[in-house]
Amino acid sequence: MKILKILVACEYSGIVRDAFEDAGWDAWSCDILPTESQQTKASGKHVVEDVLHLLYGRNFFIDFVEGCRFPEEDLEKDEEYQQAKRIPENWDLLIGHPPCTYLSFAYTGKERYSTERLQEKINAYQFFLDLWNAPVEHICLENPMGYVHTGLLPYTQIVEPYYFGHNYKKKTCLWLKNLPKLQYSLTDNLFEKKTAQEPTHLFINYGYSRKRNPPKLPSICKPFADKKEKSKFHKGVARAMAQQWTEHINQLRIKN
To answer: Which residue, among 71, 50, 45, has the nearest Cα to 61 in the 3D structure?
Structure first.
């Protein structure tokens, strides 16, 4: 059977990409930051650039380089060109983590109604739509509860990390195109064991200025250490995506 191809947009952690590679996919990730995953580094399948270039115009780079008629030995030494030649032209699945800086409800500073921030919000909306309208049959985008749901496109499903074996809460919205909702079980039943774990704490982003001391929080609440920690996805959810959607897409291919 033909190997399925996935592009994970706006991911430097490698969490989702690695889960799909473990499930047998030709899995690539893309971000403006280098990957932190040793597995992804070993695969050579992380691209540091604007993901929209991969979705809408990657072949232009290859055509340009080849049109310049560089010596073959020079092209063989050019890592960017060699990687570009390996990147699939078409994708079976796109999973995107568009930055939530201007899309979530977390920011409550006085500048939230400034012209500059409103323009950034419009740009964030457009980026979300560019991913959603990408030429890929199956698409999943994730974000926290925020302006996308209330002002642009209603989410398809909300999941919590503890649904899939983590010990914490962090409400995550999924927008799904041609994909089924993720299945999970909060309790044991006659047919399956629960996938959930009892949560012990809640990850939050309380948006304080680093120039001031953070407010006192209940012991059940744990703040994110920094923006990079906040942006990382949940391994249990990624494994569920890889398992359930691999099966779903393969079944569709068999039927067609």
So the answer is: 50
